[in-house]
């Protein structure tokens, strides 16, 4: 259900940006979404279809650029890409992990006229 709130904020942001930039309508919204966020692109897309009605986003589609989870171990210094947010170094087994990427969630660009 977190996706509903985040999608509502996304629609509001895009409409505000459209107003600021004199766009009558938005065609495409490009999102960067990190796997560590736990947000589901399918859920965001579902809520977007509902929330965009009657807004400048009404005819827009969303594209997702998924950012993998990348970690760096402070103990052994190795960097790894991991599939699940389990913060254990796959090389040495230590839990001294820094998340380098995967927390991103932002609008990379908006297309419209």
Based on CA atoms alone, the radius of gyration comes out at 17 Å
Strand order of the largest sheet: 2-1-6
SSE run = HEHEEEEE
Strand content: 25-35%
Q: N- to C-terminal separation?
A: 32 Å
Low-confidence stretches: none
- For the record, the CATH class of the domain at 2-68 and 102-112 is Alpha Beta
* General shape: elongated
Q: Can you give the mean pLDDT?
A: 95
Q: From the helix content, strand content and strand pairing, which structural class follows?
A: alpha+beta
Number of strands: 6
Number of helices: 2
The CATH topology name of the domain at 2-68 and 102-112 reads: hypothetical protein PF0899 fold
Q: What level of helicity do the residues show?
A: 25-40%
CATH architecture of the domain at 2-68 and 102-112: 2-Layer Sandwich
Largest sheet: 3 strands, mixed
What does this protein structure show overall?
By secondary structure, this protein is an alpha+beta fold. It has a domain of 78 residues: 2-Layer Sandwich (hypothetical protein PF0899 fold), CATH 3.30.2320. Helices cover 27% and strands 34% of the residues. The chain is built from 2 helices and 6 strands; from the N terminus they run αβαβββββ. The radius of gyration is 17 Å and the shape is elongated.
């Amino acid at each position: 259900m977190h996706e509903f709130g985040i999608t509502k904020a996304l629609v509001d942001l895009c409409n505000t940006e459209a107003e600021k930039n004199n766009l009558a309508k938005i065609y495409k919204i490009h999102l960067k979404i990190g796997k560590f966020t736990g947000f589901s692109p399918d859920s965001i897309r579902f809520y977007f279809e509902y929330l965009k009605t009657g807004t400048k986003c009404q005819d827009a589609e969303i594209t997702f650029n998924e950012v993998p989870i990348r970690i760096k171990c402070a103990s052994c210094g190795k960097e790894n890409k991991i599939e699940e947010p389990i913060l254990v170094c796959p090389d040495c087994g230590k839990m001294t992990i820094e998340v380098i990427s995967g927390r991103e969630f932002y609008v990379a660009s908006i297309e419209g006229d």
